[in-house]
Amino acid sequence: MMIRLIVVSIAISFAFTGFGQVPPIVWQSTFGNTGNEVMHSIAATADGNFMVMGIADVNGDEVDCDLKGQHDVWIFKMTPTGSIIWQKCFGGSKEEANPYNKIIATSDGGSMFISESWSKDFDATGHHKYSDVLTIKLDANGNVEWKKSFGGKFYDVPRNLLELPGKRYVIVSRSTSSDGDVPPNMDPVKFDAWVFIVNQMGAIICNNVFGGTGDDDLYKVLQDNEGNLVLFGQTTSMDGDLEGQIVEGTDAWLLKIDTTGNVLSSKVYGQSNNEAWRDALPAPNGGYFAFGITEDPGVLVDKGSYHGDDDLWAVKLDGNYNMQWQGVYGGSERETMMQAVAAPGNSGFYLAGGTYSVDGDVVKPSSNGNDEYVVKISPNGTLLWSFTHGGTEKDYANAITATGLVAGVAYSTDGDVIGGAGNGDGWIYKFKDKKTTLNQKQYEYPEGYNGEVVLQVLPNPARDLVAIDFGGINGIFEMVLLDVTGKIMMQKTISLDGSKRDESIDVSAFDDGFYILQVTGEKLFQSVQMIISR
């Protein structure tokens, strides 16, 4: 018989779950005082620091700026270790608060932010009626270069912001207005996606609404290699720019336009329940990675599994926007998805949000499940690790960076949270991801081996006993259980002759966390991720 040599490479990622395995917090800080403070957005600057955007309503402790109203926009420049370099507050006498408020560092060394605003005074110049998109351009020291309130007489809400070549800026919002700065809405009651481009002085140079007679919302904008804009969000429409699409409930929506607003492509993704995209990143060889939520038990999952309610949802699209794979992660309760970033070294993606779950992929949550939730997946969607941070109250993440900074809010004063006042403090911490190591082992297989996947681990997550279902195949197999450092925790040889299809192993002596189960046979090699959680 002809034998070929196969080198099997198993990526063992440090799985940050369980008390001994959570990614270590390098530093953390709560920002605020007895008022209510929330961090919404964070952006790296060219000098190695960070611009942070949040809200504040009371001066004191870290908050030291010219507050004007109920919640003002709080902007500060921060060192990589959490020290405030300078800070400013912006807004008016009413509310400037929205979880999708956004700040970006600009190519001229300054920054620019968008915020929902209900104010008609102070910085909210030119306000229309209800909520507007307050947009302010700052120089490198936080001085205002220009400020505008964009909108109409109804509801105009910011979503995303991107700098384009030539010091132009595309602002993504949603709107029910049909006057003021906003082109006619396709439905006078429901939201349309509103996308407009401004020049370096804040003048609108391109202005369009997109959608149909349902509710339409776009959360992320990217520019492709041809200079066109690709946007990601959600829709309930089947007319207008969604003509010919089949939408059930709320579906994820991809829209491609040129920089004058002509629609080049419009496509929906989803099944019978609700799906939505919140973020997206370009793929190295064309296409996109899109990230959001799904609450569809019928989702055709390639990676992970649907657990219940809203789960995190990751999708890989090719250059023609066809789905190549999708992964689902979370627990039986609701997860929220706020931001995704590429992890260093092409090692995958960090997804940040919140969770109410205490099961599934959510390992070691707090007792009430209201925690920040951060997930790392590989470039092909495999769950590498997840962690929750927080205390006994509600804590959630709004932003994450590739360097491991997580920004959000902590209502807790216990658990992982140090120094909080308890009324809602801006919470920023840095975690340390550990590099993926590669273990290689050589196995000899007969010619024609096709790596057929037949193995199942039940239950997964496990507590004490695990059944390994071999799908009815026969043979002699070597089972090896590895921890996340590659250490062999268990090794045994079993023989299956058809009289039984599974083998049980006792994991009661092992710590909570992620493990790798390797099974080797004459015509089988499979590596399965297993979670132990009690």
Structure description:
The chain is mainly beta. Among the domains are: 270-384, no CATH class; 444-532, Immunoglobulin-like (Sandwich), CATH 2.60.40. It has no helices and 38 strands. A hairpin with a 5-residue loop joins β13 and β14 (204-210). It is globular and about 80 Å long. Residues 1-20 and 436-453 have low confidence and may be disordered.
Q: Give the strand order of the largest sheet, numbering strands 1, 2, ... along the chain.
A: 19-20-22-23-21
What is Rg? Answer: 25 Å
Oligomeric status: single chain
Number of helices: 0
Based on DSSP secondary structure assignment, what is the total number of beta strands? 38
Mean pLDDT reading? 85
Helical content (DSSP H or I, runs of 4+):
under 10%
Q: Flag low-confidence runs.
A: 1-20, 436-453
* Helix vs. strand class: mainly beta
CA-to-CA gap between the ends? 48 Å
The profile of the biggest β sheet is: 5 strands, mixed
Give the overall silhouette: globular
Condensed summary:
This protein is mainly β and about 525 residues long. It has strands at about 5-10, 25-30, 40-45, 50-55, 70-80, 85-90, 100-105, 110-115, 130-140, 145-150, 155-165, 170-175, 190-200, 205-210, 215-225, 230-235, 250-255, 265-270, 275-280, 290-295, 305, 310-315, 325-330, 335-340, 350-355, 370-375, 385-390, 395-400, 405-410, 425-430, 435-445, 455-460, 465-470, 475-480, 490-495, 500-505, 515-520, 525-530.
Features:
mainly beta; Immunoglobulin-like; 38 strands; 534 residues; disordered N terminus
